[in-house]
Design goal:
Helices cover 41% and strands 13% of the residues. It has helices spanning 6-19, 26-31, 36-44, 67-75, and strands spanning 23-25, 48-52, 55-58. It has a three-stranded antiparallel sheet, sandwiched between helices. A hairpin with a 2-residue loop joins strand 2 and strand 3. The radius of gyration is 14 Å and the shape is globular.
Length: 93
């Protein structure tokens, strides 16, 4: 089986980020085939915005009112992917 094409990986990343309020983790990108040097490249050229340690955001999207809460949820994950924090409906913006 051949590795996924660039277009296929980009589509998978887009779908993942779209489901997570435009955010994704460095680990998720690595699992899709984006090696760490490639991640740094996409950040450097402006396609990805660093939103925290190990956390990125697709820059093609406008920022929405509460999306940072989704980013915080992803950022709180352990190395095994377990979420450590989740905002409640009463969390202030």
């Amino acid at each position: 089986m051949s590795p996924p094409s660039h277009q296929s990986r980009a589509q998978q990343l887009f779908e993942l980020a779209d489901a997570q309020a435009r955010y994704f983790t460095a680990r998720q990108a690595l699992d899709l085939g984006y090696a760490y040097p490639t991640q740094h490249h996409y950040q450097r050229v402006g396609h990805w915005q660093r939103a925290g340690h190990g956390l990125y955001r697709l820059t093609a999207y406008p920022i929405t009112e509460h999306e940072q809460l989704a980013g915080l949820t992803l950022w709180s994950r352990t190395r095994s992917g377990e979420t450590q924090a989740a905002p409640s409906p009463t969390t202030p913006p």
